[in-house]
Amino acid sequence: MPLSVTVETRLMKRTNTLLIMLALLVPGLAVAQWAEFPTGDLDSRTIRTQEKVESLYERGDFKRAHFIYSNELARQGDKYAQYMTGYMYLMGQGVEEDPVKAAAWYRIAAERHAPEFIAVRDQVLQTLDDEQRARSDEFYVELRKECSDIVVVMGLLAADLKSMKSLRTGSRLPANATSVVVVDPKTGRAVSADHVRNRYLRNVQIRVDFVTDRLEIDKIDAEDVSHQMESLWERVRDHTSVVGEEPDSLYAAP
Questions:
Q1: Most buried pick, 13, 15, 133, 173, via CB within 10 A?
Q2: Nearest to 53 by CA among 72, 31, 79, 34
Q3: Is 77 in the same domain as 187?
Q4: Residue 23 falls within a domain, yes or no?
């Protein structure tokens, strides 16, 4: 059921106001969101992609901007990209207008408790009828399985473990190196294997701690996690297969 003209106009005005506010906060908000969350460094490639998509959006190339927001940045755990994907669905920019999908994307964007994202999420949810809310729940669950924080971190955890395995097998050894020297994949310099391994272990521990906290299960030592990845993924799949409790919700069902 489409939104009434009155409700839609009011919602657009409120959301546009929030977008303006977010535009002023984006540099600090984006950096804070990455800094506080173990999704990896905000590398130069990601920064260039963010700059590119902002330029596309400002030029009105909404179709390409929406593709990059939703298929590249949002899948990396970029909360602003997830927010913008929802906003473009809400306004019909580059895609067909769809408040149901907009609400689902806003729900993903709000999972780190940013009040700006929570506010727009709840505003849109309040405009949905029961049938729309049920469809939003279904789409939100699909997004949780693909790009929620816990899924992004599990992917990074798996990548770190793979790199550690390569380190042990010697695939990173330079041609003239001894068995205790490797090429640091981050700097390209020759360093001790222990140095690189310890850095990976620190990252692994941070990420596995995040996952176990979200799942509310016992802590797992970084040295042991490789043997438990299959069971962890199974728990994550169960965790993301339901709507779950949304943070700081202002929405109250009638």
A1: 15
A2: 72
A3: no
A4: yes
Q: Specify the DSSP class assigned to residue 93.
A: S
The two tokens of residue 246 are 């949304």
CATH of the domain at 63: 1.25.40
Q: Which of 146, 163, 181 is the last residue of a domain?
A: 146
Q: What is the pLDDT of residues 147-191, one digit of tens each?
A: 999 999 999 999 999 888 877 654 444 444 444 555 555 666 666
Query: Could you write out the DSSP letters of every residue in 137-180?
Result: HHHHHHHHHHHSHHHHHHHHHHHHHHHHHHHHHTTT--TT--TT
Domain end (from 130, 146, 162) = 146
pLDDT for position 21: 44
Domain shared by 92 and 115, yes or no: yes
Terminal alpha carbon distance of the chain = 18
Name the residue among 44, 143, 47, 52 with its Cα closest to residue 89.
143
Residue 180 structure tokens: 């205790």
Return the structure tokens found at 32. Answer: 């804070």
| Angstrom distance (rounded) from CA 36 to CA 167 | 28
Query: Which residue range is the domain that position 215 belongs to?
Result: 149-240
Q: How many CB atoms lie within 10 A of CB 51?
A: 10
Q: How many domains does the chain have?
A: 2
